[in-house]
């Protein structure tokens, strides 16, 4: 049965180390939440608290109308109406694929015929019915993870937890299994909490993304929200940047955008707060915000680009080329895509989309950048492209 998950003020320490700090969030029934963060951010500890493997120091966990944890109340994992898919598959080596999947039904006390029917159906959903009699050591890594997924789905839990299930697989298999996880879990109707450190995986899977930093939930929102309106420099950096510039606001701004004078030129960027004139700012730039508009030798292109740079590296990516550009002042922008290759050493014009540039107060302002004579920024829109 689909259930609403509510987490309130969850904190956890190990010894003198605070791992979770007052984490609160809700996941609506049937929604897919991805918790994203680097190693040490607290995401695995949070998942283990949800599963009942760890006991939180303070805070509460509710699933539907049931209290799972609060104060002295702490239901064990097998009483929480959940299933978990682990990074290392966690299959019983002495059991066949069918027996591993069927193990999740033991507490349900189903008739043998009904249990077999559900196991066969679960293996069929993950494309492994013909491998039902094989043991884990006879299966590939991808097949083992499919068995683990079938085991999680067969009991039809209200909550599904995923602990970085794709991190041990190669790139092609990760992509195929990502699609299967997305499709099968949504078909099941279960509420899903999935943790990863891979931002591209998070954006591809999630209905909502929660970003963890140092045990705190620093942003929770839709993938589009997190990508286009990061709450902090940490969120912007962790979800993909081409590079950063420092500068000063050219004028006071009470709007959602501000003009920033940098060592490479004047750039228009988004801002979450009003900015006074002369404020020291740090400018964070998404790869998708950078468009190459021509070489410096093409005079007709110069008016359409607001910055210039030099190509220092080019890499073929199948659909086109990724470039590394060096701007005046030495800042480099990476992952700048163009369908055409620009040779190393080429001087190019580039345009920055304000929607992919974010200005935040700079806690360690640099000296005032020397002015660079370049055209005013031209606003264009680019499609969402996680890099």
Task: Please explain how this structure is put together.
With 387 residues, the protein is an alpha+beta fold. The chain has 2 domains: 5-228, 3-Layer(aba) Sandwich (Rossmann fold); 242-361, no CATH class. Helices cover 22% and strands 34% of the residues. Helix 2 runs parallel beside helix 4 and helix 3 packs across helix 4 (141-154). Residues 299-304 and 368-387 have low confidence and may be disordered.
CATH superfamily of the largest domain: P-loop containing nucleotide triphosphate hydrolases
How much beta, percentage-wise? 25-35%
What is the CATH top level name of the largest domain? Alpha Beta
Structural class: alpha+beta
Total DSSP helices: 9
Number of domains: 2
The number of strands is 21
Helix content: 10-25%
SSE map:
Elements: E1 5-14, E2 17-27, E3 32-36, H1 43-51, E4 58-63, E5 66-70, E6 73-74, E7 82-85, H2 97-103, H3 112-125, H4 141-154, E8 159-163, H5 171-188, E9 191-196, H6 199-205, E10 208-213, E11 216-221, H7 223-228, H8 233-238, E12 243-249, E13 257-262, E14 265-271, E15 280-285, E16 290-295, H9 299-302, E17 307-316, E18 321-326, E19 332-338, E20 347-352, E21 357-361
Parallel strand pairs: 3-9, 3-10, 7-8, 8-9, 14-21
Antiparallel strand pairs: 1-2, 1-4, 4-5, 5-6, 10-11, 12-13, 12-15, 13-14, 15-21, 16-20, 17-18, 17-20, 18-19
């Amino acid at each position: 049965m689909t259930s609403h998950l509510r987490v309130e003020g969850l904190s956890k320490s190990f010894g003198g180390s605070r791992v979770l700090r007052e984490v609160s969030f809700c996941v609506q029934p049937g929604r897919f939440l991805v918790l994203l963060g680097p190693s040490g951010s607290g995401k695995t500890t949070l998942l283990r608290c949800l599963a009942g493997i760890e006991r939180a120091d303070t805070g509460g966990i509710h699933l539907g109308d049931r209290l799972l944890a609060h104060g002295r109340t702490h239901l064990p994992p097998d009483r929480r109406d959940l299933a978990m898919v682990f990074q290392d598959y966690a299959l019983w080596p002495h059991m066949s694929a069918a027996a591993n999947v069927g193990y999740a039904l033991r507490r349900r006390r189903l008739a043998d015929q009904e249990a077999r029917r559900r196991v066969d159906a679960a293996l069929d959903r993950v494309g492994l019915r013909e491998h039902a009699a094989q043991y884990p050591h006879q299966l590939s890594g991808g097949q083992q993870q499919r068995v683990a997924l079938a085991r999680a789905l067969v009991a039809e839990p209200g909550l599904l937890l995923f602990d970085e299930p794709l991190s041990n697989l190669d790139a092609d298999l990760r992509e195929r299994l990502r699609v299967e996880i997305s499709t099968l879990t949504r078909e099941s109707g279960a509420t899903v909490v999935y943790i990863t450190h891979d931002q591209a995986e998070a954006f591809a899977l999630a209905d909502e993304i929660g970003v963890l930093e140092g045990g705190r939930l620093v942003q929770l929102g839709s993938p589009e929200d997190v990508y286009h309106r990061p709450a902090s420099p940490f969120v912007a950096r962790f979800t993909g940047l081409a590079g950063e510039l420092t500068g000063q606001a050219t004028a006071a701004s009470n709007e959602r955008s501000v003009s920033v004078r940098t060592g490479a030129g004047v750039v228009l960027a988004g801002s979450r707060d009003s900015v006074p004139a002369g404020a020291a700012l740090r400018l964070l730039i998404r790869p998708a915000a950078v468009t190459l508009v021509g070489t410096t030798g093409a005079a007709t292109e110069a008016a359409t680009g607001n910055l210039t740079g030099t190509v220092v590296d080019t890499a073929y990516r199948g659909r086109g080329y990724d470039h590394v550009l060096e701007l005046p002042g030495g800042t480099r922008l990476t992952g700048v895509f163009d369908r055409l290759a620009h040779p190393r050493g080429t001087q190019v014009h580039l345009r920055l989309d304000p929607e992919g540039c974010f200005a935040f107060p700079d806690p360690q302002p640099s000296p005032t950048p020397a002015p660079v004579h370049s055209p005013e920024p031209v606003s264009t829109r680019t499609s969402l492209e996680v890099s």
